Amino acid sequence: MRTYIRTVLVILAAYEVILGLWLTVVPKTFYDHVPTVDWTPPYSDHLFHDFGGATLGLGIVLAAAAIRFDRFLVVVALVAYLAYAAPHLVFHLGHLEGEEPGWSIALAVVLALSVLVPLSALAGARKLT
User: What pTM was computed for the model?
Assistant: First the structure.
């Protein structure tokens, strides 16, 4: 279980750091090129830059939890991630695009996994010493 939890933390950290850097450095390319992002316009440079910084910060916390790997930090990092991922899933489930069923299904599956996988790691983290 320790390997699974650490792997989840490393994958989430890498994803969040890469996404955070992308959004911080060139946010308009994210809006223009990632499918489904433009379903809720308008684009806001300020908002995307801020979101990039927050995402980068979350990635750093997840990386710290993977490195330090004590129960408290692991739980805090996973709960912090879920505080973002769960409302993100709920929002998108209520805003799926009827004209894009393929992308809607893919988005729903990916976002559901972004909640279920960290939840499973959080459940396993109870046993960390």
Answer: 0.91
Contact by Cβ (8 Å): 9, 74: yes
Instruction: Please name which of 80, 72, 81, 79 lies closest in space to residue 129, comparing C-alpha atoms.
Output: 72
Q: Collapse the DSSP code of 35 into the 3-class scheme (helix H, G, I; strand E, B; otherwise coil) and give the result.
A: coil
Cα(52)–Cα(129) distance, integer angstroms: 33
Q: What is the pLDDT of residues 3-17, one digit of tens each?
A: 999 999 999 999 999
Cα separation, 73 vs 61, whole angstroms:
8
For the chain, the structural domain boundaries read: 2-125
Outline where 36-100 has alpha helix (H). Answer: 45-68, 71-93
pLDDT tens per residue, range 41-69: 899 999 999 999 999 999 999 999 999 99
Distance separating alpha carbons of residues 88 and 41, to the nearest angstrom: 16
